[in-house]
Design a protein that fits this description.
The chain is 39% helix and 14% strand. Helix 8 links the parallel strand 5 and strand 6. Helix 4 packs parallel to helix 5 and helix 13 packs across helix 15. The longest helix has 20 residues. Bound molecules: pyridoxal-5'-phosphate (PLP).
């Protein structure tokens, strides 16, 4: 191993995003190596035994650890400002691992009812089957979280801003409630990434990532991660990962590792373009309402600006004119008229994506669950990429012009 230069202790986020990792291999590569190997060779049987028994630290098997995965984990932990990080095969695998590691039958979870649809399904459906009960509460009304606390509450789960309505919750207030009850606060930081928001600095215990989104940033791989203190990551989650195997592939870890190097530049630029698009949408007569945290009209604008480094993120949602079935028809017309935006449910890509949440990301929820989460049939979500924003405005104008205001 060739040690890389020792980073000074006070380097900033953009430097960590490019430099934090592991020593180079004996070849001294500048770009981090991709270790595509399932297992690692030991010099003799006694060393193998010591390594399997965790008496000697070494890479053993890629389901447990792998140098490329470890580099990604170290870099992401440095960006989030946490002691440790564990990579997972997807964002949902990260939430699964967290819940398997922290919860048992009879435990209670409090979760915002506006979180990603699969998170609701996982907590209510799958963990419900195993005797973990979840109370779903308002994203924005802190008193609902406080009132939902029970003696067996172990975890508060929040996502901020939410997908697709960009509702913001007060991380500091939720951390106080969690800690007062002896529970942990987990925050899904997928929409902001650590370049805009650092939940650990605001008191969150663990941070969830879908690396599929901004961390990769170019829509190439499925990946996930959990950042947090060593007593959670190493003591509660590593052994579950070893047994259950929701491990991150080295190839996907490498793609995310390299994606992190441009994270801040992409986030700042995509965020700026998203605000420009949101302001333009607010002027369009065929648009009923626009959701973006940087807009003064956003109900949690001030909280979002304080929590998110003064930036709104790259997701803009809006409701087109129309009642009943017409709302859905109008939303489909706008989506279908686009010639640039990709019609896909993913986000966090340099390519702008457009989706109809009610029939895609939130399609598995009941209409009642959708309505309580504010997912209207006329709602469209745009995740702004890096194309010229004037071209994206023109792309949306094509469909909007077909709707009678
Ligand atoms: C906020 C949020 N969390 C978690 C996930 C799940 O991530 P993945 O698709 O990588 O499993 C998503 C996916 O869209 C998401 O939007």
């Amino acid at each position: 191993m060739i040690p890389r230069k020792q980073l000074p202790p006070d380097v900033r986020l953009d430097t960590l995003a490019v430099r934090e990792g592991l020593p180079a291999s004996p070849w001294g590569e500048n770009s981090e190596a991709l270790f595509l190997t399932s297992s690692f060779v030991h010099p003799d049987a006694a060393t193998a035994a010591a390594r399997f028994a965790n008496e000697e630290e070494a890479f053993v098997y890629t389901r447990f650890t792998n140098p490329t995965v470890t580099m990604m984990e170290r870099r992401l932990a440095a960006l989030e400002g946490t002691e440790a990080c564990i990579g997972t095969s997807s964002g949902m695998a990260a939430i699964l691992l967290l819940c398997m590691g922290l919860l048992k039958a009879g435990d209670h979870v409090i979760c915002s009812r506006s979180v990603f649809g699969s998170t609701i399904k996982l907590l209510q459906g799958e963990f419900g089957k195993f005797g973990v009960q979840t109370t779903f509460v308002s994203q924005t009304d802190v008193s609902e979280w406080r009132d939902a606390i029970q003696p067996n509450t172990k975890l508060l789960f929040a996502e901020t801003p939410t997908n697709p309505l960009t509702e913001v919750c007060d991380i500091q207030a939720l951390a106080q409630i969690a800690h007062g009850a002896g529970a942990l606060l987990a925050v899904d930081n997928c929409f902001c990434s650590p370049s805009l928001q650092k939940p650990a600095e605001l008191g969150a215990d663990v941070i969830i990532h879908s690396g599929t989104k901004y961390l990769d940033g170019q829509g190439r791989v499925i990946a996930g991660a959990i950042c947090g203190p060593e007593h959670v990551i190493n003591d509660k989650l590593v052994s579950v990962m070893r047994s259950a195997g929701m491990s991150l592939s080295p190839f996907n870890a490498w793609v995310v590792l390299k994606g992190l190097e441009t994270l801040s530049i992409r986030m700042r630029e995509q965020s700026r373009r998203a605000l420009e698009l949101a302001q333009w949408l607010e002027q369009q007569p065929q648009v009923q309402r626009v959701y973006h945290p940087s807009l003064k009209s956003h109900p949690q604008h001030e909280l979002a600006m304080a929590q998110q480094s003064g930036q709104g993120g790259a997701v803009v949602s809006f409701i087109v004119q129309g009642d009943g079935p017409l709302a859905r028809a109008n939303a489909f017309a706008v989506i279908d008229a686009t010639q640039i935006c990709s019609i896909t449910a993913n986000l966090g890509d340099t390519k702008t994506t457009i989706t109809h949440p009610s029939s895609t990301t939130h399609g598995r929820l009941t209409e009642e669950q959708r309505l309580s989460a504010g997912i209207a049939q006329g709602l469209i979500r745009v995740a702004v990429g890096l194309e010229d924003i004037e071209d994206i405005k023109a792309d949306l104008a094509r469909g909007l012009q077909q709707i009678s205001a």
